[in-house]
Amino acid sequence: EGEMASRIIFQIDGNSAYLSWTSVENLRTGAGPDLREVPAIIGGDQKSRHGIVLAKSISAKKMGIYTSEPVASALKKCPNLLIFPPDHEMYRQYSHLFIDYLKTLTPDIEQVSVDECYLDFTGIAHRYGSPLEAADEIKNTIYERFGFTVNVGISCNKLLAKMASDFEKPNRVHTLFPEEIPRKMWPLPVRELHMAGRSSSQVLNKLGIHTIGELANTDVNLLVSHLKSHGRLLWEYANGIDDRPVESLPARAKGVGNSTTLSEDVLTERDAAPVLRRLSESVAKRLRAGKQLTGSISVEIKYADFSAASHQMPLNPPSNTAGTLYSASLQLYRRLWNGEPIRLLGVRTTRLTDENAPVQLSIFDIDWEKNEKQQKLDAALDKIRKKYGEQAIRRGSDVTAKKL
Asked: Pick the catalytic residue: 25, 116, 247, 281?
């Protein structure tokens, strides 16, 4: 606990990144105006009027235009709206500039999307007068070098740093330390809490819980009875509890993962389960092919509105069986899913070890036979699929799930 309390985490988030980056590029090449100065959006294209709003300028926001809204409805609110299509290749280049600069300060960086990352400041704190001073320097350097603004949130864990960076924008540094929670976070509506989706918020509102403070002070068992383990996660977050480490990229790159964008949004656990099973099987198969075991698994969810969330847990003892990965991924999914429609699901394993490395067994894992049986079954399935193709043998549950 003491060590956790002494961590300092920054969350650094590009302000309307797609729109800012397009503007910087426009100014550099003369290809168009600075979209930040006028009502403008990135998304769809002007002619077809299809697609959704991916980013908006401040003046567009003032006209009631919001991210993930259909372009057609944004045009109704503002007929003279400037619309630029997204250019993902260019965004990747700007993303690299910004992350590469941060990596000159510390390797302890976890990039969570093209325009946001966590930075564990603890190890470099001694170089600066204060965290606020460092955050100001980072923010100003990014603006001077690359021409776009970021928000920086500062706290002792990822959740509170993320909440802080979402406070007033753009080009700001905010803190949200545990002692500031009652004043800065608790008065906010529950929908502002990271991971509280629309449907979770509706459930909470029906229970008479309207602010994050009310949520924090609700009996956790009541929340679990209405929202399962996602209720416990929201209660922890409302109380500022979050022990996830900043996972810098080398550890992640040493992992094996798989994700799938779904042809139609997943709306229920019954639809999600077979997808998680297939992902777990493919990841387990790759681990076995590499003769590796995994000691940590994470599940990633991307929602239809493009927001993303992930959660991880240790596996003890390490494993490479599909059954273990699947049951862990289902547990994580239940904790994570906020009830909103899902566009993408991913399963990722890290902390890999060699299959033959000695394993520290915990006293709870004496079910050797079952484990060995599972490994033999997995190996047999691998052989059959290799010879006759991926679809040669499938689980009954997958087949029935398709018919449901």
From this structure: 116
